[in-house]
Amino acid sequence: xxxxxxxxxxxxxKFPTATFKGKIDGNYDLTKDGFYMVKAIGEMTIHGEVxxxxxxxxxxxxxxKTAFESSFPIKLVDYKITIPTVVFNKIAEQLDVKxxxxxxxxx
Length: 107
Known about the structure:
Layout: H1 2-8, E1 19-24, E2 34-46, E3 49-62, E4 65-75, E5 94-104
Antiparallel strand pairs: 1-2, 2-3, 3-4, 4-5
């Protein structure tokens, strides 16, 4: 089902990646260990469409390494992902996205 969705609706061959370009809202000392609930503000590009977004992010700083985790919904209509009416009732109008990333400060 996932392959069918990616091939036919997400058009993964034409749009193989999704990107987020933005910044963490606020100032945080990434040299001190800690856990923070922050907001990432920026542009999300999916399916060739760009949307301004504010994303909830769990950020942890441990031993000079920073990790980010986020879960958020995206509405298919916002990114011009169309679902044929024949299968519209079988496919959700929004997707749940989960992201994790890690960074290490350069010395």
